[in-house]
Each structure stands twice: as structure tokens, then as C-alpha cells.
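RECORD TYPE: protein structure
NAME: Protein CBG01994
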Amino acid sequence: MLEAAQANVEEVEMEQEEKLKELTHKNKSATLEMRKKNLQMAAQIEEEEMELDDEEAAHGAEDVEEVTCCSRELCARYNVPNKLCAEESKCQNEARISPNDEFMGLTKPSSNGREYCMQCFAVNPRIQKKLYMKKTNQQEKFEKVLKCTGCQKL
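PREDICTED:
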């Protein structure tokens, strides 16, 4: 009887091992199937993103500039630094010609040319006034601005 019980235990153990192997195989198959689906989803997402990038590239940068969030124009003048008045130490304006201020500059550009604030130009008798004309310290070039000046959104 002991031998029969021992044979029965061995048979049960073998069945359990078989079931364990079968479950392990199913688990591995399920895991592999999940990995495969995840890779397919990742590939699909990447493909969709590439299509979006291609569409954006096809539209070009011109379309981006047309998009605005308010009515203000998305461009601004480049920064304008102070100019120096040629009178320097004698100047009443601390030798500065601020942005948007008027000044006197040579009619024809020259490397020897000097620029004077309006006050210094008016009181200096040594300047050949015929060679100068009134100008404004302002940059004529504009830069594209990516941030709206009205609401500060991109």
C-alpha cells in the first residue's frame, strides 16, 4: 500500500509539473504578445508624429507667422543703443543720443563723420552745418517676434 501511495504522489507531482510548465509557457506567450502589441503601438505613434512633422514642414514657417492670438503685429524693431554725441564732455545730455531722439548726422555717410545731439549742434559754431541733416536714432530693421506683445503668449 505504501508503494501505491508513493506512486500516486509521484503521479500527482508529475501532473503538477506539467501544469506548471504549461502555465509558464502560456505566461511567456502572453508576455511576448503584450510586448509585440506595445511595440506596434509605439511604431504607430511614431509614424503619426512623423506625418504631423511632415505636414508642418509642408506648410512652412509662413503659416506660423500668420497665427496670432490677438490683433497686435508680431514684429518689432531691433534694439537701438544710445549714440554718443561728438561733444562728449561739453554735452548737456551726458553725451547720449537716446533711442527715438533726433540728432544731426552727416548727409553722406563717412568714417570720419560725427554725430551731434540737437543742443550741441545748435551752439557749436565750428560745425559745417551744410554737411549735416536731421536724423532719428531709430533702427529701420524689424525682427520677427515669436511672443505676442499684447498677451505675452507664444
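COMMENT: Residues 61-67 have pLDDT under 50 and may be disordered.
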